[in-house]
Amino acid sequence: MSISLPNETNGTIPGLKNYVNGEWVPSSAERWEDVPNPATGELLARVPLSPKADVEAAVAAAAAAFPEWSKTAVPRRARILFRYQQLLVEHWEELARIVTLENGKSYSEAYGEVQRGIECVEFAAGAPTLMMGGQLPDIATGIESGMYRYPLGVVGGITPFNFPMMVPCWMFPLAIACGNAFVLKPSERTPLLAGRLAELFAEAGLPAGVLNIVHGAKDVVNGLLESPGVKAISFVGSQPVAEHVYRTAAANGKRVQALAGAKNHSIVMPDADLDNAVTNIVAAAFGSAGERCMAASVVVAVGDIADELVGRLAKAADGIRIGNGLDEGVFLGPVIREENKNRTIGYIEIGEAEGAKLVRDGRKDAEAASQAGYFVGPTIFDEVKPGMKIWKDEIFAPVLSVVRAKDLAEAIAISNESDFANGACLYTDSAKAVRQFRDEIDAGMLGINLGVPAPMAFFPFSGYKKSFYGDLHANGRDGVEFYTRKKMLTARY
Ligand code: NAD
């Protein structure tokens, strides 16, 4: 299957280039990685593991573009964002197709992901309002005071493989709308889409050098963390890397937001509408092959509904269609690489050894086994206990653990024992239970009777504990605060 890439050499497997100062430039990398389509194993491209020198070239280009861009009138910047939004809408299907090809998620999920990215651009286009400061005419007799917002300079963004469209769009559109210049380091496992996003932004009128892309892995990340020219770092990825990024960026005097891993609990009460709970949990646990930071990876079944709930979850999982995400009706695609498949199988073995009851074994799924790519079928463990490794670790695969609790208080206590605090859901008809859950649960993004409570672009993406390192979250007002600095002017005339 061929896709049109900006820096493709016709007919051959493209070696990706970096995007610096509005041009595709060859990386000086000595090491490269293959980028396979995870559904088929077919080679899509080769990605350079760029060295730190390439980072410095991109940071220099961004720094050179910053003075003029930061002084471009904010409504003019916003107009470029509006044009960008239109172009993204026009290219929606092409973008979704690239997401499915490089990530493996189903086309309908990829299509939804593109929508989430477009919504970020729509939010960023509100920059003239978002960047307003505030004044008080009389802070003392004859003295006034005002707050003014300015961009920071060059911002670095580092993104994970699981949302090649949405997560970069949490970062660069808003940072750029606020007047910053940006250097993006996309995941080396899904590096293709970023180039298209940059091309379309240039077509919308973004000046050269304002958005740059450096492909690679940890050398690029560490180059950004150490570069004196970079003022702030936005990171999304796994917990150990988030912690490293947070510590290193802060030690180098940079502002940093680092969004990390998760283990999201869904509590199902005895009064819940089980049809709704099962539909939503199955979609949230196995959608995107469980490779979502908001995946429902643990169910806490409260009271005597547990047997029925587990039975229905298993039945619904049996009905999931597995295959290439570009094929009609496919729900479950591959995990991202062979090593992720092996890691998932390893966790299923650990779960069995820990004494959890394997209700549905994704290793034995015939439809998954018949695929050429990296597939694991939906897997369900019952009678999982807090403390077990399959309960504690983020597996990031289509593996669901069911824990049993006697009441809501115990269910909340179990959820709160997790190291992570990204999302949590409650299935119930009781307003009293909702209130108790909202007040007592340790998680940043809560859902009631739905599976994936990911906030829209105008609200913060709000995890904490080991799910987030920093102060200001991505998106919403937090995002504007993160990408701007404030000056206070106090005056007597
Ligand atoms: P990852 O941590 O492996 O990679 C993320 C980025 O860090 C990539 O660009 C990668 O090149 C870089 N990186 C990897 N190892 C590094 C190292 N040792 N030193 C420096 N940089 C390094 O994450 P991933 O597997 O691509 O993404 C999945 C993870 O992201 C999951 O843990 C998921 O929960 C998390 N995630 C979190 C959110 C959120 O909002 N909290 C959203 C999406 C994904």
TrEMBL record:
Its EC number is 1.2.1.27. GO terms for molecular function: malonate-semialdehyde dehydrogenase (acetylating) activity; methylmalonate-semialdehyde dehydrogenase (acylating, NAD) activity. This is Malonate-semialdehyde dehydrogenase. One of its GO terms (biological process) is L-valine catabolic process. The gene is iolA. It comes from the Bacteria. Keywords: NAD, Oxidoreductase. The lineage of its organism: Bacteria, Bacillati, Bacillota, Bacilli, Bacillales. Homotetramer. NAD(+) binds at F161, K185, E188, R189, E394. It catalyses: 2-methyl-3-oxopropanoate + NAD(+) + CoA + H2O = propanoyl-CoA + hydrogencarbonate + NADH + H(+); 3-oxopropanoate + NAD(+) + CoA + H2O = hydrogencarbonate + acetyl-CoA + NADH + H(+). Belongs to the aldehyde dehydrogenase family. IolA subfamily. It comes from Cohnella thailandensis. PANTHER family: MALONATE-SEMIALDEHYDE DEHYDROGENASE (PTHR43866). Residues 24-488 form the Aldehyde dehydrogenase domain. Catalyzes the oxidation of malonate semialdehyde (MSA) and methylmalonate semialdehyde (MMSA) into acetyl-CoA and propanoyl-CoA, respectively. Is involved in a myo-inositol catabolic pathway. Bicarbonate, and not CO2, is the end-product of the enzymatic reaction.
